[in-house]
Amino acid sequence: MTAAAAARFAGTDRKKRRTSAAGRRRRLAPYVFVLPFVTIFLAFSVYPLFYTARLSFTNWRGTGAAEWVGWDNYAYLLTNPAFWGSLGNSAVLWLLIVPAQMVLGVLVAVLLNSAKLKLRGLYRVAFIVPFVTPLVAVAQIWVVLFDQRHGAVNAVLGLLGLPDIGWLTTGAWAKPTLALLFLWKTTGFIVIILLSGLQSINGSIYEAADIDGASKIRQLWSITVPLLRRTIMFAVVLQTLAVFQMFAEPFVVTQGGPYNSTTTAGYYLYNHITRADLGTGAANSFLLVILVMVLSLGFVRMLRAKD
Amino acid sequence: MLRHHLRRRTLALAAATAAGGLGLTACGPSITSDKDEGGGTDALRAPDTDAPSGEITIWDRSGDLFEVFEGVIDDFNAVYPDIKVNHVAVDIDAKLQNTLITGADVPDGVFLDDAKISGYTDYLWNLGDVLQPYLGDMAQQKIDVNTVDGAIYGVPYDLNPGLLFYNATALEAAGVDASAIETYDDLLEAARRYKEAVPEAGPIHLEQSAFLGQLQLEMYASQLGTSIADADGELRLDSPEYRRILEFLDTVRAEGLGTRAEYLTPTDIAEMDNGNQVFYPWAIWFSFAPQQMLDQTSGDWRAMELPAWDAGGARSGAMGGSSFVLPKDGANADLAWLFYEFLMFDEVGYTAVWGPNPTYPTGLNTSIPAYEPAADPTAPLFEPVEALGGQDLWSVATEAGAQIPGGAPIPAWWDGAVDYLGNDVQRMLDGDMTPEEVIASATEQIQTNLVDRQ
Hints:
The complex is a heterodimer.
Chain A: H1 3-55, E1 66-67, H2 72-78, H3 81-113, H4 120-132, H5 135-145, H6 152-159, H7 171-198, H8 203-211, H9 216-227, H10 229-244, H11 248-253, H12 265-274, H13 278-306
Chain B: H1 2-24, E1 31-32, E2 54-60, H2 64-70, H3 73-79, E3 83-89, H4 92-102, E4 109-113, H5 114-117, H6 128-135, H7 140-146, E5 147-148, E6 151-152, E7 155-156, E8 158-159, E9 162-167, H8 168-173, H9 184-197, E10 204-207, H10 210-223, H11 240-254, E11 258-261, H12 266-273, E12 279-283, H13 288-293, E13 301-305, E14 322-325, H14 333-345, H15 347-354, E15 368-369, H16 393-401, H17 421-429, H18 435-451
């Protein structure tokens, strides 16, 4: 090898090394960029998930060593009427809340989206106020309003010659009363979501419908609702998650009573945790996750099917 | 090809995540295949120096009681100048469990409901040795609720004797002599007579909250020297005592002698203020109601010992109560013991708690000390209560407290029993179950869902 060839070779080698070092850096760069996220994700999502899975097969009560009990916690829950009762309560609340909230939400959003409506900004704020009001304060007002003997609601019923209702003290009425609280508190939030969906609908579609002589109701049914379907489904999934995880409302208003009739799936889970039955609580949370996941996937599939 | 490659990478990533996650779970509690023996028996020793020094962290609930304890710290430091007290207001129910499990920033002393102590014993010092000099002068009920497997885990704080609160003005107007009430039969008779005079009345309070209803039921049971389970955790619901209590409550319901209301909700307050509800068998802390909640009848109410189940029987039972526990992971639990010893057993300490103080100018009158020398009927710590017509509540409560029988421990699963016993009692008060059905149903469900799963 001549000196020139050797120098050329050395230069190529250096270049190759530089190129391969740069290539390595390029290949590594994405991993370095995602490393902070992955670390946090592992610590705060993956680890708790596996930790909970492990706990769900033990009878750990927060003290001492945990005893491995296999599938006992799952078997206990799946054969326990109280567990199914809590799911049933959540299902009934879902039926009372979500359909009504979507209908109400769409109507209010359409109204608030109308250019003819004066003081739109004021109404929008008014609708979101309940959502940002602390639940504990609202709950106290609810307890006073719906008090059986001395509440304002029964006082009005009395003026109409109707009998008192045990809104918060009878199994039949406690769920609708709680649903009403949830509706009042969260419908404003749903309205905001639907309003953003409405504002993405091209106005020319309505102009064309006007020219074709379609009535406002026809436009609502044939244009607004179909074009809002994705937004509505998003809201339905959100509220399904919220209803099945509902905890604060029964906790502050009814404490799950009367007779566990307002013990929601989330509240039932909370009871296991606070009573230091952590193994059963972990199993309960897994069953709840599976249920909510199945429901959410079902809604997403419904959405896709129409697309 | 690319899809296969991506799928392989996805699978590899998922496997790596799963492996990492599984590896991380090793950081949790150790798992055994046998029942853990548990039962921490480490006995706390008091500091063996004449000039103890260091820093202690004390957790109390936020609110009035926090302010009261805060006010005692200066007195404590006058005796122990080298112990610095970090007094912290904490949501104990929300934080204690996690703190004890993780072992991070564990306080040296914690204010805790008696009903919760047995659930934490593995993490707490056994205080049997340090409490020994005081046990002979302690309310037996408080020793029982703090004792698990022979070890004592709490420094008893307060005694909450059950009393019969009554609207003296309304009863007098109806011609009912409250002073003649000595037994529960007398109470029923007085309620019947009041209802004759005031037909719309439901004279006796029937609690509508499942939790508080169970707590009240346990007050009646404590009066009879029993509780939901014995010291070995054996259920005692199927007993003549519980049968008798439930039958009494069912009689009140069946004869229309009760007002169904949740403690101090609008209905409850209104029914007291309008004179429909005139008998309130409850713990001493009900005295808060005439002082703060009742508009129309504040000043009309009085307190007396509970009626006895049999003539000459005990005239009170315990309803609620709290103690101080000392976690083993606390850095200076021995110094925290000195703080609680001063607070509960030193005259300066307990006088500062129950006597007139900046938070309670006439004294703390919603409980009495569990330490008998401090609960002397002739040496009142708090003053007569204006809202009870100037009555000397101290002497009534301390005399009642002295009669509370022992033998009523609280099992670790007490709260969980509310789902069964508490709810079934409510069903009975709504007329949907008989006392026998309550006993059978609650016994079976508590045994299956709580006792057998410990």
